[in-house]
From TrEMBL, chain A:
Cell compartment(s), UniProt: Membrane
Domain of life: Bacteria
Keyword Transmembrane helix applies: yes
Entry keywords, A to Z: Membrane, Transmembrane, Transmembrane helix
Pfam families registered for this protein in UniProt: ABC2_membrane_3
Domain ABC-2 type transporter transmembrane, first and last residues per copy: 85-265
Highest classification ranks of the organism: Bacteria, Bacillati, Actinomycetota, Actinomycetes, Kitasatosporales
Descriptive protein name: Transporter
Transmembrane segments: 50-70, 82-104, 125-154, 160-183, 190-208, 243-268
Automatic annotation (TrEMBL), chain B:
Signal sequence interval, chain numbering: none
SUPFAM superfamilies: P-loop containing nucleoside triphosphate hydrolases (SSF52540)
Protein origin, superkingdom: Bacteria
Residues covered by the ABC transporter domain: 14-245
PANTHER family: ABC TRANSPORTER ATP-BINDING PROTEIN, DOXORUBICIN RESISTANCE ATP-BINDING PROTEIN DRRA
Gene Ontology MF term list: ATP binding; ATP hydrolysis activity
Any Pfam family the entry gives: ABC_tran
GO CC list: plasma membrane
InterPro entries: AAA+_ATPase (IPR003593), ABC_transporter-like_ATP-bd (IPR003439), ABC_transporter-like_CS (IPR017871), ABC_transporter_ATP-binding (IPR050763), P-loop_NTPase (IPR027417)
GO biological process terms held by the UniProt record: response to antibiotic
Protein's cellular compartments: Cell membrane
This protein's name: ABC transporter ATP-binding protein
Length: 274, 324
């Protein structure tokens, strides 16, 4: 079937090729971090659009449902702020933590990482591109939930722009965690369980007003990265928000984001070469 | 171009847990030595579980061998597995990383991750999709394609961003003849124009005979033979393969048929025999005349294929094989 005999190939060196000592051939180019990150991001976003829209609806309905349910329990003030902020950030937790953990868990189990691992792409580009895409995918759901919550509880819409910082930073922290769960869990079912647990924690600890929690639970709440996104957002509902605290909370999100994404990148490296 | 020496890999035993039975350790690659030459289509042929995928995953730097060395174009892949991605393109057996992308985006993204800039990546994407006849389905997600179309789309991604070595793990699984032809002519074109080398995994004997320059036959992790397909077939050149298909069951009351039984490989109603030419003539005469003929559904007589070589080399473990 092959019509070209090997001997007449360009630069044919069949015999010479067997000599052990010879110059190593030049390597193909490496994909640079930024362009490959953009390429992964675009691909993941289109994937998410195709396959994850129903799940985004689920996430949004879940948060809206919680808002409606809590309407009877809290009647305004600090508690309402916490509930609205918590439900909005919950959408981020659902997609970035839970779905991303599942995605990486399944990708790893099914050998899908081989595709990336045999391309000269920096591990950080794969992890950050996927994390970024999942985080951006939460934007509409988070916005819808926040606006709905504000209207329902009569909170001001003035500072909703702060979501432009809350979503990416909480998104970074949670998606880093999700990716790390997915890549480190020894089995995909375990990755799914970890993602679900993380999401449940964000739900229980983020949405319920902290004042009513017993001390150990409040400690757990402080350990959860989504809490800081919730706090930052909740603070902006006050008449004159204390921006220093908002910035402080966001800085915690950013810090956790950097660490968890670094861990996820390390986990990817480890998972890619078994 | 690619030299493999003493490559050995054992998957560790897994202890059983509740509901999950224990698995013993498996030596998937056993002291493998190979030399793939530049511009060659080199095949790895073997049945399921022979260790073909395990071997190429070590060659591509995806899996670290226990011992042994892999050198591609002068680079030590065991020590620097990350270099493999800059020398070769790999088409794995799985496509899950691309499943939800459109054919076009899968090809473009892969090109970009292979280091092409946007313009180059799009240009090569269009060229490759066109070459493989995928343009009409370029806008559809891989998940929604048929098995053969999906495989062809994955093959396309392996071609975007030129590499001197293509490592293809069963590239044509599930493809129809048209798609297969597209694959082999794309491979041949690259070989003719750029001297591209191909390391190909297959368990398809016909494919191995028609497209490969040389083939290593793998069995239980070991290379049991390595030669051109014609050279391998010479080892069993003195043999003829006779296949008999019985209507219901073999007429064992015919003494000649009963005598044949111990030399036949039985699979259902089919008996496969490897015989010297004059023996084969005698067998055909027996079964096409007399009492046996009434029980015969079909028979074929063929020169040996690589499958016969494989079975012959596999030897002792199987009953009724040709003794070389
Ligand atoms: N991850 C793994 N852990 C343990 N054992 C494995 C693993 N992967 C493969 N094996 C075992 O190693 C052996 C070789 O498997 P491999 O996948 O290399 O075969 P193959 O020749 O590619 O088969 P196929 O034609 O079915 O693709 C088999 O016995 C298989 O059960
Ligand atoms: Mg295989």
């Amino acid at each position: 079937m092959s019509v070209v005999p090997a001997e007449v190939l360009p630069g044919s060196a069949l015999a010479v090729d067997e000599q052990p000592a010879r110059e190593a051939a030049e390597l193909g180019p490496r994909a640079r971090l930024w362009p490959s990150l953009v390429a992964v991001y675009r691909a993941q976003l289109s994937r998410a659009r195709v396959a994850r829209i129903p799940l985004l609806f689920v996430a949004t309905f879940q948060s809206v449902g919680i808002l409606i349910m809590m309407r009877g329990v809290v009647d305004g003030g600090r508690e309402a702020e916490a509930v609205v902020a918590g439900s909005a950030v919950l959408v981020v937790a659902f997609v970035a933590l839970n779905l991303l953990a599942q995605y990486f868990g399944q990708l790893r189990a099914s050998g899908g990482l081989d595709h990336y691992a045999t391309l000269p792409v920096p591990p950080a580009a794969v992890v950050l591109g996927a994390a970024g895409a999942y985080a951006s995918f939460t934007v509409p759901g988070t916005l819808v939930t926040a606006v709905f919550g504000c209207v329902l509880f009569g909170l001001p819409l003035t500072h909703l722009w702060v979501l432009a910082a809350v979503i990416p930073l909480a998104g970074a922290a949670l998606s880093g965690l999700g990716a790390a769960f997915g890549l480190l869990a020894p089995r995909p079912e375990l990755a799914t369980v970890l993602g679900q647990l993380g999401m449940s924690a964000a739900l229980l600890l983020g949405v319920l007003p902290p004042d009513r929690m017993p001390e150990p639970v409040r400690l757990a709440r402080d350990l959860l990265p989504s809490t800081y996104g919730v706090e930052a957002f909740a603070r902006t509902f006050r008449a004159s928000p204390d921006w220093a605290y908002v910035l402080g909370d966001l800085a915690v999100c950013a810090g956790v984001g950097v660490v968890s994404l670094a861990v996820a990148t390390w986990a990817y490296r480890r998972a890619a070469v078994r | 171009m690619c030299a493999v020496r003493g490559l050995t890999k054992t998957y560790p035993a897994v202890r059983g847990r509740r509901g999950i039975p224990a698995t013993p350790e498996v030596r998937a690659t056993d002291d493998v030595r190979l030399d793939v030459r530049r511009g060659e289509i080199f095949g790895l042929l073997g049945p399921n579980g022979a260790g073909k995928t395990s071997l190429v995953r070590q060659v591509t730097g995806l899996m670290r061998p226990d011992v042994g060395s892999v050198e591609i174009l002068g680079h030590d892949i065991v020590r620097h597995p990350e270099r493999a991605a800059r020398i070769l393109a790999y088409l794995g057996q799985e496509s899950t990383a691309l499943d939800e992308l459109t054919v076009s985006l899968a090809a473009e993204t892969t090109g970009r991750l292979r280091g092409l800039d946007v313009r180059q990546a799009r240009h090569e994407r269009d060229a490759v999709l066109d070459e493989l006849g995928l343009t009409p389905i370029a806008g559809r997600p891989l998940r929604k394609l048929s098995g053969g179309q999906r495989r062809l789309a994955c093959f396309a991604t392996a071609l975007v961003g030129e590499r001197p070595l293509l490592v293809l793990d069963e590239p044509t699984t599930g493809m129809d003849p048209v798609a297969r032809r597209a694959v082999w002519s794309a491979v041949d074109r690259r070989r003719a124009e750029r001297g591209t080398t191909v390391l190909l995994v297959t368990h398809n004997v016909i494919e191995a005979e028609t497209v490969l320059d040389r083939v290593a036959v793998l069995d239980k992790g070991r290379v049991i033979a390595c030669d051109t397909p014609a050279g391998l077939k010479e080892q069993v050149a003195g043999e003829v393969r006779v296949e008999l298909v019985w209507r219901e069951r073999a007429p064992l009351d015919v003494p000649e048929v009963a005598a044949l039984r111990e030399r036949a490989v039985e699979s259902g109603r089919r008996w496969t025999l490897r015989l010297a030419p004059d023996e084969a003539r005698a067998v055909v005469a027996t079964v096409t005349g007399g009492a046996a003929f009434a029980a015969l559904d079909d028979f074929t007589l063929a020169t040996p294929s690589l499958e016969d070589v494989y079975l012959a080399l596999g030897g002792a473990a199987r009953q009724g094989l040709v003794r070389v």
